[in-house]
Amino acid sequence: MDLIKTLTWDATRDEKWQLVTLTILTIFCIFLEIFMHIYLGVSVGYTHFFYVLLVLAAIWYQRKAVVLAVCLAATHLGIGFFLFNESLWAPLLRSIMFVIVTLLVGTLSEEHRQNEAALKESEKKVRALFDQTFQFIGLLTVDGTLIEANRPALEFSGVDASDVLGKPFWETPWWVHSPKQQEMLHAAVKKAAKGEFVRFEATHPAADGSLHNVDFSLKPVMDESGNAVFLIPEGRDITDQKKAEAALKASNERYLLYIKEAAMRLKTPVEVVEQNLAQLIDDIEGGDLEHDQVVPLLHLQVKNMEQIRQNIVDLNKTVVDGFGEITPASKKFLTE
Amino acid sequence: MASAAEIRNKNIELLQKVVAEEYYVLIVTTNQPFDILKKNYEKNGVPLDRIQFIDTVTKYAVGRDPQPVKNCRFINNPANLTDIGIAMTEILKYLEGKKTCLLFDSVNSMLIYISSQNITKFIHFITNKLRLMNFSGIFLVVEKGLDPDVLVQLTTFVDEVIDLDKIPTKES
Fold first, then answer.
1. How many Cβ atoms are within 10 Å of A180's Cβ, its own excluded?
2. Is the ipTM of this complex over 0.85?
3. CB spacing of A263 vs B147 below 8 angstroms
4. pLDDT tens-digit series, residues A190-232
5. At what angle do helices B116-132 and B81-94 cross, to 10 degrees?
6. Residues of B with CB below 8 A from A275's CB?
């Protein structure tokens, strides 16, 4: 099968030379047939060489080579039987063997080609998935040596496969920026080698130097005996998601600060005015205040309410200024 | 700290105690005018000879200068922290060497006029000044009127927080 593989590889490289080779061999076989059989009268022995031609033809042209085998067999049979009046059986047997061997080798060669084509197709699909996927994927041995890395992972870090393959994974550009993460990865490889799925958040430096947040996982590939034979590292870039979460958190914190300040600048002052007015009523009812004392107190509460209204406007302005879409009429209502 | 309903009574009680201990008192009022405070103190038997006032609301409420009063400084606006600070500094300098206590009434009413951030900064300024001059100080606060984070920040400026609601009110 290895010989067939090698010869098939040679054949696919240059079909022109296959034809030339077969033509030369065919001519030589015919020469042998004429020289040995007709001229020297020898009918056996030299026919073994015919198998060289037939096997090569079968490897290169698969079952189509049977045509050549039949022609060669017919020639050999015809010369022997019709020219020399030899017994039919020996040449017939030899001729049948030509055809059978050619058919057998041709069939095997055809099967091999089909299997190879199917394998190539399958490899092409796997490679397409491997290299065209959005996330980073690789392949490690169980001791953590990187043996494959997909194109997105390599392009992300701006490295070539030759820079990283064969190295311990924790010594590759994705990890060397952080000793702590290298330790985590080392521990993760040991766990995964025992069959455990490991996942954690990590950071990887991109080719431009920026640090990206990555959802990293390490999955073991098990054999039939339940032993890990490979480890699959995967990384999903979650930087944008993290930024969005941080922005949302910051927005929520700003909102909380705003409503806290609003409570202190509105709720508390209203309570103060409320308490002052209640006290004022008690004092008036108790006869504790003169007219000229009541009026300034009432003025004060009016001024306080004016200030509270201004506080509302000021607080509204801080929100409205940050709003993109607000009608001029609404803006006026809120800020004046 | 006290409840909103009790803060006026607690003001008087505190002042009585402080005066009884022979302190000179500087009262900064951001809620009750000088006239009303004076009336209440006199009604409750608090001697005023050792008390100085900084009144930030009378001039703000009536819109004009009130009649000058010997032991009272009138500030045009409770939000005018600069003038309040200057008045405090001058009065405290006058009281230097004497056993002096500042009574600030109240942090909550200041929120009508200035932001919590500015109040925090102002209180910090006052407490530092008092420490430098070896004076005492009392800041009245309605606990439920302040954000807990702001209250925690204010408590870091003082030596002690006293919940006046847990102290029974003296029958007058």
1. 8
2. no
3. yes
4. 999 999 999 999 999 999 999 999 999 999 999 999 999 999 9
5. 10
6. 4-5, 7
